[in-house]
């Protein structure tokens, strides 16, 4: 019996670490580095900006969309006109789905979904997994350097 227990201790340690990581993800606070999510419009006028079909923000965590125009011509984002080399912030105080017309973006529309910050527990774990999934899905892909 003792030999069986000593042979499977790595599996028990791995299960304990997974449980600890799960508890941390469910209970740790949501504060991030910045409350603003940057949306930069490129300097090239003919370059369309590829965005996810929906930008997700969380009230109280990351609830400001920072719009930066790096080009030489003004950019229209919904009711806002952003001059060349300028930036403006668009704060969101209410949860909901917001749609903005934006010509430089592929599809000409930008949807912003603002969600309430989840309470500790399964909701917070689901929120973290959704953020990880969105981050992985829209990672910029680059070819390896030769």
Describe this structure in words.
The protein is α/β, with parallel strands linked by helices and 146 residues long. The chain has a domain at 36-137: Sandwich (Immunoglobulin-like), CATH 2.60.40. The protein has helices spanning 2-7, 9-27, 122-137, and strands spanning 36-41, 55-58, 64-69, 75-77, 80-82, 87-91, 96-101, 109-115. The strands form three sheets. A three-stranded mixed beta sheet has the order 1-3-6, with no helix packed on it. A three-stranded mixed beta sheet has the order 2-8-7, with no helix packed on it. Helix 2 (9-27) packs across helix 3 (122-137). The longest helix has 19 residues, at 9-27. The mean pLDDT is 78.
Provide keyphrases for this structure.
146 residues; alpha/beta; Immunoglobulin-like; 3-stranded mixed β-sheet; 3 helices
Order of helices and strands: HHEEEEEEEEH
> What is the third-level CATH name, the topology of the domain at 36-137?
Immunoglobulin-like
Biggest β-sheet: count, sense, barrel? 3 strands, mixed
| Overall body shape | elongated
> Tally of extended strands?
8
Tell me the strand order in the biggest sheet: 1-3-6
Q: Could you say which structural class the secondary elements and strand pairing correspond to?
A: alpha/beta
